[in-house]
Design goal:
The chain has 107 residues and is an alpha+beta fold. The protein is 27% helix and 20% strand. It has 3 helices and 4 strands. A 4-stranded antiparallel sheet has the order 2-1-3-4. It starts with 5 loop residues before the first strand and ends with a helix.
Length: 107
């Protein structure tokens, strides 16, 4: 994941509406999670709120979100984040998020 330095961070406690994982008919190419959530919410589908943060923001602790948190690597070409260690759950502190991001970058 070293090439990816952008992440999606959200609260793990928020309720959200599950969606189908099948691509829409006529889909030309994958989009990253943040873009997909924006498109879905435009049609009234409830999606978890979160924020897009850079590795620099994480290292500086420049984010504020309800805990526990979920950190995910964010890239349109990264379709299966868990396969490459790109998801960390249950992060309770800024230090947890920072450590998870560093592990992702190193893998």
């Amino acid at each position: 994941l070293g090439a990816w330095t952008t992440f999606c961070l959200r609260s793990q406690t928020e309720e959200w509406t599950p969606i189908s994982t099948h691509p829409p008919e006529g889909a030309a190419s994958p989009v990253n999670e943040a873009e997909a959530k924006g498109q879905l919410s435009a049609y009234g589908v409830r999606v978890p709120t979160g924020c897009i943060v850079s590795l620099e923001d994480i290292r500086a602790g420049a984010f504020s979100i309800d805990r526990p948190m979920v950190l995910k690597a964010l890239h349109a070409e990264l379709l299966h984040k868990t396969d490459v260690g790109g998801v960390s759950l249950g992060l309770a502190s800024t230090a947890d998020v920072q450590a998870a991001a560093e592990r992702m970058v190193e893998s």
